């Protein structure tokens, strides 16, 4: 029985919600990005200021406000907590799968739409990031939709005569402009940079044999600017250009410099995508090569996806900072190409390559062993601690975390799925192989987020977060010594400081403080803060907790 498209859309939405929404609040937010962004949203609500972003109640010009509007809205609905901070991305996950299904169905057919949605929702990092509280999922979706509507415009303008392109040209231009404006409002002008680079490469590849109307280009810019003006213009008119200028200068620095802990080797993003987009990354490999095309649209859309992949990966290889999610926009072309391979194999329009099964077994086996290894190490972690050289890491391993041993079943599930999936590939049952591999990975991420991640978090930051939470409602200062954290802001529910001296570390350590100060440092850095006025309260799992009382009057 063939299901109606509306029924399929409903099923995708329900299944996606069941995978992405449960357990959002099961584990604390992670330093830095998750806590950083959640704190920005909390302070946005606290200060009743929704046009300027703050961190520690000081202007924070690194990001535009779109995502913080989403988070602060969720916090009004669900409270200031982990669930609310991650809820916008869970909704993004549902929307993204509906979008790729709809696009895939429109360009190819319903089966392809299902495969693309399955590949996106059933790959490692794409699935994981829909359970996070960081900006990139929405940014990626808006940027991709802007490009997609431009592709539709190009097809109609240049005589592709794709079935279903019944709207006037300005309709596609308008929506492309709207989504570009939203993308820039979410993460900055890098969205426009990627868009223009993709368009430029496509033009060069086609020897400039495509045409667009300059009036439509102007309309695109006007619409994008109108969307941006909800923040850029309003902030500039009401408060002056200072904040926007600082924001733009930061965006420039982001592309030309890197933090000491954000450098990486040249092939960083390709390794990240290979592992992070598993199993789609492996299934996509054959589609990077020449194919037999069934239509003009088939060939052209694949060309756009390949260009998008190379533009994103090359651009963020050039960028000095190497951060995992910088190349996450490439998840769209990677999952498309994975669906494309399976689709072509099943229709006998391409020949299945045996190396795909070999690579799936190798990389999938490594990932399975890593998951199994976490559970095994968890059982023996205290025995292994003495052999770890890093003092802080060794102390982390002393956290009191209960492992039953059965947590490794998550890794075993992936092993079974790999065996079955690879067998189905050999039997030319390509759709069943895709359902097995992607479905299993979605289940593995779901179970890991509920069972394994909360335990791992207790080692890395659990003791410090517990300490911050215990300070909620207490009239005091809390400060981290020798390391950067946003946990002391979000998890203490910090109020806006009255005394400006509280931002001065030296004043907190030795000045004439007006209320108690709690300090948190790490065990490998405590020697730098051996002051008689700082009394140690206790130490736990690599963190040292200190307190200074105000001088007697």
Could you outline the blueprint of secondary structure elements for this entry?
Blueprint: H1 5-20, H2 33-47, E1 54-55, E2 58-59, H3 66-78, H4 82-107, H5 110-121, H6 124-129, H7 136-157, H8 169-187, H9 190-205, H10 214-228, H11 232-239, H12 242-256, H13 268-276, H14 280-284, H15 296-318, H16 331-346, H17 354-384, H18 391-396, H19 409-426, H20 430-451, H21 453-470, E3 477-480, H22 487-490, H23 505-510, E4 517-522, E5 535-540, E6 543-548
Parallel strand pairs: 3-4
Antiparallel strand pairs: 1-2, 4-6, 5-6
What can you tell me about this protein's structure?
It is found in: Cell membrane. This is Glycosyltransferase RgtA/B/C/D-like domain-containing protein. Pfam families: PMT_2. GO terms for molecular function: pentosyltransferase activity. One of its GO terms (cellular component) is plasma membrane. The protein is mostly helical. The chain has 3 domains: 5-351, no CATH class; 366-459, no CATH class; 471-548, no CATH class. The chain is 62% helix and 5% strand. It has 23 helices and 6 strands. The chain has helices at residues 5-20, 33-47, 66-78, 82-107, 110-121, 124-129, 136-157, 169-187, 190-205, 214-228, 232-239, 242-256, 268-276, 280-284, 296-318, 331-346, 354-384, 391-396, 409-426, 430-451, 453-470, 487-490, 505-510; strands spanning 54-55, 58-59, 477-480, 517-522, 535-540, 543-548. It has a 4-stranded mixed β-sheet with strand order 3-4-6-5. Helix 4 runs antiparallel to helix 5 (110-121), helix 7 (136-157) runs antiparallel to helix 8 and helix 8 runs parallel beside helix 10.
